[in-house]
Design a protein that fits this description.
The structure is a single chain. The protein is of the alpha+beta class. The protein has a domain of 147 residues: DNA polymerase, Y-family, little finger domain (Dna Ligase, domain 1, 2-Layer Sandwich), CATH 3.30.1490. 39% of the residues lie in helices and 20% in strands. It contains 15 helices and twelve strands. A five-stranded mixed β-sheet has the order 5-6-1-7-8. Helix 13 runs antiparallel to helix 14. The chain starts with a strand and ends in a 42-residue tail after the last helix. InterPro entries: DNA/RNA_pol_sf, DNA_pol_Y-fam_lit_finger_sf, DNA_pol_Y-fam_little_finger, DNA_polymerase-Y, DUF4113, Rev_trsase/Diguanyl_cyclase, UmuC. It holds the Pfam family DUF4113. One of its GO terms (cellular component) is cytosol.
Length: 431
Amino acid sequence: MFALIDGNNFYCSCERIFQPRLQKAPLVVLSNNDGCAIARSEEAKALGIKMGQPWFQIKHLEQSAGLVSLSPNFPLYGDMSLRMMRLASELGDKQEIYSIDECFIGLQGISNVTYRAREIRAKILQWTGIPTCIGIGHTKTLAKLANHIAKDADRKPGSYPTRLAQVCNLVELNERQRQFLFEMTDVGEVWGIGGQISQQLKQAKINTVKDFMQCNPATIRKRFSVTLERTWRELHGQGCIALEEIPSPKKEIAHTRTFGQPVHNLASLIEAVTEFTSRAAEKLRKQQSKTSTILVFIHTSKYRSGPQYARSITVPLVRPVSDTKNLLNAALRGLKKIYKPGFDLTKAGIILMDLVNAQTRQAELDFGETVLDSDERLMHAIDEINDRFGRGTIIYGSAGVGSEKKVWTMNQQRRTPSYTTTLGEIPTALT
């Protein structure tokens, strides 16, 4: 048995914790460079704002409907997520953090599940200010579906029975009650059934979850895929997707960014690629991996007038590494080979590929084990200092120094303070 705990409109909820005036206001959090809506409050959804809708299409709602827009504050969201996940883990002995605002909890051997779930939900709300919904089912897919029912029952009165709002436990319902809910639920709401598959199912007169569950699994496998058959079996209570307490290491790590304004010179590109490589290297070490190949790319925007330019280069490394120094040497060497002056470059990025476990050793004739160990110890020390005193406490000189805004940084004119992660931005309590 599993529970799925999900933060409601998570980014918006995090912002509202520190700005109570936004509690009932229509609120959207925009993407990097304030391009489009990536999170919406219920009030914003009621205005018809769609996920991913460009800001210029909804900007007029600031005046006509009191819409509030904010730039993303990912340090805040990450810290609030960590707090929420720690509390959520108290529901069971096993936890899989699925995304920044979702986690699965293994409930084997747990009694009074619904009561405990409501207690945990109340504790998360009281201790962090984040509202959540919890779905419970015999499989992860059923837990996801139960979470959807809990959310809709809470925010859309009449969509589902009120008693299922906030916490929905499909396990404690009888078969007739479950089938009633499945008949009310669109097939596209099932975890693993995306928009394209949903349309194909509906063309075959499979409109609801109940319709899908009444299909022949062999037919689903033949007509669609073994993955969709697995979804069918999960809905029938046959566990096919295990809980992953330790996430699988990523096969690639990328750090890319669209610039706040076009970049015209190599010096600014070097600063940007240094920043991207440093951040990617941190992630690489965090998952205890090394890379033997780095890809660097730059390009102009196809949506802007003027000459177009797009180039990438793959730089192989002598041996798998994870230290920022060696990765920077390779990345900047590649950047200088593909850079060409005279273009309005709008995006750059790096991708670390061919990742291997950090325990892999391949000493070269010109690099002794002592040098390798020294590099790793240096990176460990830098990571610890940056973790303790804040990212950017120690940086490489090629990232640029000084407090002035870099031309390649993102436009985040509406960003709120990092209330919980930066000492100088902690809220002041008035007495």
